[in-house]
Batch of 4 targets.
Target 1
Amino acid sequence: MATVNLSDYDFSSVPNAEEMKFGIIVSEWNFTITGKLLEGAVETLKKHGAKEENIQIKTVPGSFELTFAANQMVEYTEVDAVIVLGCVIKGETPHFDYVCMGVTQGITQINVTNDIPVIFGLLTTNDMQQAVDRSGGKLGNKGDECAVTAIKMVDFSWSFEN
């Protein structure tokens, strides 16, 4: 288990995002958590030069819908990367396992069949405190990390265009 702030990174290692376009899909379920992930992602993209008009944000009802929405965004928009943000907190039934597995496999499938990186920002926690810790709490903000990853992956994919 992580015991340090996971959002600490070398600012200079992140490429300039001024010309990049991003899509963010965020789950409405557990929005007290996913809203903070969204704030972190948007702030970090802007901090690295992304223009507000180049950040599209869409919401979906729950985390399971992230896969469909990410695929639609890849297919029908002009974004360079998609970030999916959700939060599934383990309960008393196996629903947690099915949702987490479905989203993980779905996002993986989109990544291997398309040229646009889709960044996996689904918190899968055992309890609400773990989610709080990872959405701006003592372990940082996974939204920040996803934004940095998106920028780096766009830069990586662009390196093959020359």
Target 2
Amino acid sequence: MTPQYSQNMDLSKYTVLAVDDIPLNLLLVEKMLSKFNFKLKTAGSGQQALDMIAAEKPDLLLLDLMMPGIDGFEILSRLRSNPETADMQIVILSALNSNEDVVKGFQLGANDFITKPIIMEKLLNCIVTQFKLIEAKSKN
């Protein structure tokens, strides 16, 4: 079920990178989003995500927080402090849902925060909203 306000958008021009260290979570996101027209890429670690972002800056990052090595908070901090990636749309997808975690995510620069388990309609609406923000920025 595509949100009505996305039907006039060309989603195929957007690339989304989903980052999660749990393959099943990535598979779930892929399955949820496979019927939509944007390019979906996945990364299984923080370092892999940073490498992929450096190689090809995606339009939107779906970012898990709890990962070994470089966690989501660190990725968020690095991306926001780098002029090349400072304006990237970043949505946190996490099982962490305490007020402290949510506030920290927003303080570090997340554009939105979705808690797991993920509701497909909520995730898709969030993604389309982020794409609309990208389009609005590009018109200015």
Target 3
Amino acid sequence: MNKPPCMVWLPADHRLLGDHDHQAPFLVLGDKYARAVRVGAQAQPVVFPLAQPDQIGELLQLVDGVMLTGSAANVHPSHFDEPVLDASLPLDEARDSLTLALVKACVAQRVPLLGICRGFQEINVALGGSLHQQVHTVPGLLDHREPSRVAHDVQYAPVHAVQFVAGSVFQAWAQGPNAKVNSLHGQGVARLASGLTALGHAPDGLVEAFGVSGASSFAYAVQWHPEWRCLDNCLSLAMFRAFGEACRARQSERLSQSADRCTNEEVGIS
């Protein structure tokens, strides 16, 4: 029997699409995220479109990793005890209700976890951190937003360096102390959660990469977008390859445990 594919759970965004008078709800996953999992991590991306928080435990038993994607929507500031500063910016409370609980479950159950942009922010908030809702308005910080109405190649072009902590996995993946990355975010880390360790910073000091402190499996996140043409960037490819290796290690463990349970049931061992 062929070995089943290694599977990575990606959350869907909740959006209203269509003309203003004829909008309908859609569940959305960006192609570039699914494709990066497929070609970069060499795993099968999966979506559980209507997953609820109380189903996380049973759904995690079916997958080998979780990747929290970027999104046009921001994490609702009520999750870090702040009011909404700009009501015109999109929010996705349905996604919040799932992903914030999903982060905690992944850490507790040692499920490989990779966060990108919004996913990076979700991990920080889920573990008790807070966000700058508008980084560009904070004294001393740069404007990290992408230019509007330009080609994607311009939006996703590298624009600033990230300095990595010496000896960190990011320094190893980058094959050097720093790397130039893209920048397409309006929010950013204000207070880093106590369970996280900063591993990379932008020139203005903003946290751009972190790991879950003491994690026994892959548990890292970045503020930039490594999924964009990940095969063309050595840092991005190394990151996705490492994530994929961690997912395959979990798959082997998961399948082995499943086989042991089946054997025990066949011989009547409880």
Target 4
Amino acid sequence: MNFSNKKVFLSVAIVAAIGLTSCKNEAKQETETTTTEVSKEIAMTELSFGVRGNCGMCKTTIEKAANSVVGVNSAIWDVDKKKIDVSFDDTKTDEMAIHNAIAASGYDTEKATGNLEAYESLPGCCKYDHDMEMNL
């Protein structure tokens, strides 16, 4: 192969390589433009109700119990107001499931009485007055 043929061969190889790269990029772009994103918004139900308790340890236990319910997005208990604010997906759970989960951890809610055995195993600072007002 003489020098001139080597030049032509090299030129053809470079053009072919550019062509393949170009085809790959075009195929990639075509794939990206045909991909569509589907977003699904879930409407959250918001709810507030009273929960008896005393301190920061109560707050941790009450919030953990509420958040353990499948479908609950967030649960925040206010120590001073004795009230919990809950956001949940009502296609996955309902209000009573949240009340029952909190009651199972030993705390009274407006609609469920705390489990006595769980209440007895709470730390001393968490033993609340069963007649205390809630949802202040």
